[in-house]
Description:
By secondary structure, the protein is an all-alpha fold. It has helices at 5-34, 49-73, 77-103, 127-150, 156-173, 175-182, 198-214, and strands at residues 112-114, 123-125. Strand 1 and strand 2 form a beta hairpin.
Amino acid sequence: MKRSVCSRWLAVTLYALAMAWVEAAVVCYLRTIIGEFDPARPAPTPLPGNLIGAEMIREVATLIMLGTVAWLAGEGRRSRVGAFLLAFGVWDIGYYVFLVPLTGWPHGLADWDILFLLPLPWWGPVWAPVSIALLMILAGSGWLVRGEEGTQPLSWKAIGAGTIGALGAMAIFMLDALRQLGEERPLRLDQPPADFPELLFGVTWMLMAIPALAVWRRPAPHRTGR
């Protein structure tokens, strides 16, 4: 029996929210163990090496889980990509929302956070990944809700703009780690960057917004010959 669009959208959203709570709870346990809840506080206690390795594997496992539920929820290539983007965006925002009652952090959207460890540590203020997650929810909902026939393939210009924007945002998040590699010194996970290039990030965000908005364009009507 074919599932309704609303039921698939709701299932993906609920799954992502459940994942967000699980991750927030795990972070709460880890930070309780080391006795600190703010990852960007001065001179934080470094995580043991075995926990860092486990965290890297957990990041990969999380992506696999998101990809799997997207494959199950979608009914075609575009709707599956949409389900993945929707799940990722809801999971990311839900994670920060659930962290507040569990740990009292973040105190605000300007707080620094370490976002990922692969392939290098990603640092950014909370508002940055949240703003990208909103674009992912927008684009993902469009592809999942409207389906294969209700959306048209993205133009190469939109794909190019989104790709450049995404790669640029990733480079910004990893900029401090890239600098450390250039200086041939060990990567530090206990100290956030001194600043964040907000203007440059804004440019990358606008590039990513191009395909996110293009998803909602209605396909051109079919013309019938006389």
